[in-house]
Design brief:
Helix content is 65%, strand content 0%. It has 4 helices and no strands. The longest helix is centred in the middle third of the chain and has 13 residues.
Length: 74
């Protein structure tokens, strides 16, 4: 998924992450998952976005995945 805010000198921006979560393909999600695995700040941003912008099914899935990835949560 091409996003105007995806690749720049500051990395993944919140707008790009929100767009990927809301409208991205499975391939986009896999790339975002890999980014979240390698950068805790990106993972934290994903969780923050998912809590602020509830997307049916998507928000809960991503929050649970990141909590499991980093050994957090219940």
């Amino acid at each position: 998924m091409r996003h105007r805010h995806l690749n720049d000198d500051v990395g993944l921006r919140s707008a790009a992450i929100d767009d990927i979560l809301d409208r991205g393909s499975l391939d986009d999600w896999l790339l975002l998952r890999d980014a979240a695995k390698s950068d805790k700040a990106i993972a934290d941003t994903i969780v923050r976005i998912c809590r602020a912008h509830e997307m049916y099914g998507t928000s809960l899935l991503w929050i649970a995945m990141i909590e499991r990835m980093y050994g957090e949560g219940p």
